[in-house]
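Input record (one chain):
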Amino acid sequence: MDARFTPQMIIAHFVSQKGISVEDIGVAPVVVVSWGRDVIQSLANATGAQPSLHWLYGERQPFFTGCVQGQQVSFVQAPVGAAGTVMVMEELIACGARVFLGVGWAGSLQASAPVGAMIIPTACIREEGTSFHYLDRSAAVAPDMRLVELLRENAEAEGARVHCGLLWTTDAPYRELNSKIETYGRQGVLGVDMETSAMYTLGQFRGVKVCNLLVVSDELGKEWRPAFGTPELHEATERAQRIVLRVVIQH
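The corresponding structure, as predicted from the sequence alone:
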């Protein structure tokens, strides 16, 4: 069934109201997505990217566009969670985005992936609700494998401890039950987040390239070990930003 209204229609309505063109929004073909305002500001500062004067969400979700060694790139803060992230990605695709690199965080289910380690999800357990509006429940979703390899190579070059494999995405972080954590851990699931499986599904559905680099922010072993706000996590997140910027140039 065709959608009653589309991202293209939303963008057309927005630019009509503002008296601007789609190009005036300033979306680059390559977009780096993060859920941390500090990360987006840091990336903008590092590249000299400038805020868009005509971004749909204004300062609520910062959006910058700049150039990295000749490669035009945008940086956007997405809402936490699959639904909001996919909505923003849909609108960015309608404005010309074709490659998405996510920089985020995940809880680890494996002792071999402690706080500060990095996860590149190559397959997903879909326990968010958004992806099922795009692809059937039986569909397997995956990232763009060229981006996986570039992220892995650059993470290793930065000296990061990097893991590629299965990730669990959920809408309900406060219902990550002990029984489920233990079961998924035994199955080799690396970690858990709230966006990746929906992002990968959208990538497959819309024919755009998507891959995420996730820093382990907390460990969900026998005891919960959070590292939010610690120098350890801050340093790892800065390393992830450097890795992604290198991939922007190479992709």
